């Protein structure tokens, strides 16, 4: 059996998380501004994933948010059976109220964000700031656990220094507090992806708990996926930026989907179409521009392509640009250009 087949087989095995089961063990990581309803719609058309995670939603806002107007707390009914809503917040009470709404709406699960190191979030005592107040983080897990019966997942990172021991302790405490799964991103805060993640720290987390652990960070191709699973023993993989570059990545890794040369142009067109279906034109173009740098990283002259696609100001202009730039089949690269990966 070759590496690809071996990975397909291990990813295909059912994983039990709390009271539920999922497969394949490959998920879309939560990404604010990128993992919105339109992008998830696009990914769903290719398939091949086990779960999709929303970008982080404010726990304070979620209980009274109107999904018809919220750009982040919105979803398609069809995706609820495999959609996890991620929330950020600083206190057990607001996180529990948000989780209750998420359960009531029919989401597969709830994910607690203890990893975001953006200062606007950390200033509120949320995201990675909670790794400095571990008792509060554990109290949040306990309270959310007591409020809902859907799976409660926690996503966190190494912490604020490069020692992983604190994160290992915390993983154990999260499990004891009732967390059903962990996604671990082995980077220090506020390191924003400029240094490589330390995968061996995933090994430590996995060894410390008996709940499933998803490994995350710099998964670019199937060899990376194989290596992360083999080296760390993690139970599943969480893919972020690479899924934005190649929304068919899940289908490729788990279903053997083989992209043809039209995949880039058809995917870019579909992205803007779905954006305009779910959002107004101005917001659709704004979100398309967030997608562009990751998508352009697929091309040899990605910087040029990125610049050209970013000029458009309306959905029609976006479509004209896509046609101009991509119908000539620009040369692609096997591994996306990481300089474009913000
Ligand atoms: C634009 C952007 C937004 C992100 N937003 C979130 C978020 O809302 N919640 C979260 O837990 N992580 C967030 N992340 C981190 C990703 O989930 C993931 O941990 C990180 O990108 C590393 O995985 P990757 O190398 O596969 O991209 C974000 C990352 C990016 C690039």
Question: Which features would summarize this protein structure in a list?
Answer:
342 residues, alpha/beta, 8-stranded parallel barrel, two-stranded antiparallel ribbon, 14 helices, binds flavin mononucleotide
Q: Which homologous superfamily in CATH is the superfamily of the largest domain?
A: Aldolase class I
Mean pLDDT: 96
- The proportion of residues in beta strands is 5-15%
Major sheet: 8 strands, parallel, barrel
Distance N to C terminus = 36 Å
Question: Describe it for me?
Answer:
- By secondary structure, this protein is an alpha/beta fold.
- It folds into 2 domains: 3-255, TIM Barrel (Alpha-Beta Barrel), CATH 3.20.20.70; 263-340.
- The protein is built from 14 helices and 11 strands.
- The chain has helices at residues 3-12, 37-46, 92-105, 119-122, 134-147, 165-177, 199-208, 222-232, 241-245, 249-255, 263-278, 281-296, 302-310, 315-326; strands spanning 15-17, 20-22, 26-28, 51-53, 57-58, 83-88, 109-114, 152-159, 181-188, 213-216, 236-239.
- The strands form 2 sheets. Strands 3-4-6-7-8-9-10-11 form an 8-stranded parallel beta barrel, surrounded by 5 helices.
- β6 (83-88), α3 (92-105) and β7 (109-114) form a beta-alpha-beta unit.
- α3 runs parallel beside α5 and α12 (281-296) packs antiparallel against α13.
- The two termini are 36 Å apart.
- The mean pLDDT is 96.
- Bound molecules: flavin mononucleotide.
């Amino acid at each position: 059996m070759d590496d690809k087949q071996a990975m397909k087989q291990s990813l295909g095995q059912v994983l039990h998380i709390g009271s539920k089961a999922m497969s394949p063990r490959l998920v879309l990581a939560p990404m604010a501004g990128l993992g919105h309803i339109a992008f998830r719609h696009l990914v769903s058309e290719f398939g091949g994933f086990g779960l999709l995670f929303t970008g982080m939603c404010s726990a304070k806002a979620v209980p009274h948010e109107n999904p018809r107007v919220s750009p982040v707390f919105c979803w398609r009914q069809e995706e609820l059976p495999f959609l996890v809503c991620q929330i950020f917040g600083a206190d057990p009470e607001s996180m529990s109220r948000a989780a209750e709404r998420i359960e009531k709406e029919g989401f597969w699960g709830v994910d607690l964000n203890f990893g975001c190191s953006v200062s606007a979030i950390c200033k509120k005592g949320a995201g990675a700031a909670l790794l400095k107040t571990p008792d509060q983080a554990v109290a949040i897990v306990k309270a959310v656990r007591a409020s809902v019966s859907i799976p409660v997942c926690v996503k966190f990172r190494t912490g604020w220094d490069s020692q992983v021991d604190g994160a290992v302790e915390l993983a154990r405490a999260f499990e004891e507090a009732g967390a059903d799964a962990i996604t671990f991103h082995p980077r220090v805060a506020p390191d924003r992806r400029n240094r490589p993640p330390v995968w061996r720290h995933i090994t430590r987390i996995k060894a410390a708990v008996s709940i499933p652990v998803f490994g995350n960070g710099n998964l670019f191709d199937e060899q990376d996926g194989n290596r992360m699973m083999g080296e760390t023993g993690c139970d599943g993989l969480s893919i972020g930026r690479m899924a934005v570059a190649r929304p068919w990545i899940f289908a490729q890794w788990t279903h053997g989907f083989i992209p043809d040369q039209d995949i880039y142009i058809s995917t870019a067109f579909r992205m803007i179409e779905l954006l305009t279906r779910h959002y107004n034109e101005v917001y659709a173009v704004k979100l398309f521009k967030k997608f562009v740098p990751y998508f352009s990283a697929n091309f040899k002259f990605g910087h040029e392509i990125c610049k050209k696609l970013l000029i458009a100001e309306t959905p029609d202009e976006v479509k004209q640009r896509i046609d101009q730039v991509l119908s000539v089949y620009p040369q692609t690269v096997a591994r996306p250009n990481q300089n474009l990966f913000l």
